[in-house]
Amino acid sequence: MPTPPQAFVDNLDYILHPFYRRGPGDLGVGWLLLASLRRVLIGFLLGAVVAIPMGFWIGMSPSAMAMFNPIVQILRPVSPLAWLPIALSIFNSADPAAIFVIFITSLWPTLINTALGVASVPQDYLDVALVLEMPRWRRILKIIWPAALPYIFTGLRISLGIAWLVIVAVEMLTGGIGIGFFVWDEWNRLNLSAVFLSVLLIGATGLVLDLALRRIQTWVTHRPATQT
Predict the structure, then answer these.
(1) d(Cα 8, Cα 188) in Å, to the nearest integer?
(2) CA atoms of 173 and 215, how far apart (whole Å)
(3) Low-confidence winner among 7-21, 48-62, 87-101 (lowest mean pLDDT)
(4) pTM of the model
(5) What does the mean pLDDT of the chain come to?
(6) d(CA 9, CA 74)
(7) Is 124 helix (H, G, I), strand (E, B) or coil?
């Protein structure tokens, strides 16, 4: 096992030149991180676009809750990597397959938390809206949406954390350009110093992603985000 000073010296080129290009397959860790982040953000945003409206529908409709809850509870525990062979069969390419796995991974926490937030809106608020004869769209915008926002952002933060965790495992299996494949490739070269550097970069990037989403939550909800 390399000592910290030895690992620092071994990784000095990666640290000083994170965005070098020395060939088609020889890229700095900065480019590898950006490639992984691109896959994660695309899959995460697609999951949010599907999960939030569907969560509203499930939370507002008892019949939709009864219909979709068993499906969600069956699919939610499935390991994200179990979807990878299916995705590869559908897309015949590693990059869209990885994005599809991230999409499936980030779908469930946001969907469940959104439905929970919508269903948890106090009935008194809804009764007042009925007395005032608010139209349905106005009830959603003025009452349900603000009350459900903390739940939605909790689901988004969980989804983004899991998506960043999963992309490393997916890239180890699919190869190509990405921080996950970099970890596996350096392990095959027995370069543990680079593996430790990758672990630090993955953790630091996950922290930055969560801080960014917390900042967005504070800006949107005008309330401080929780630390967890």
Answers:
(1) 20
(2) 33
(3) 7-21
(4) 0.89
(5) 88
(6) 48
(7) helix
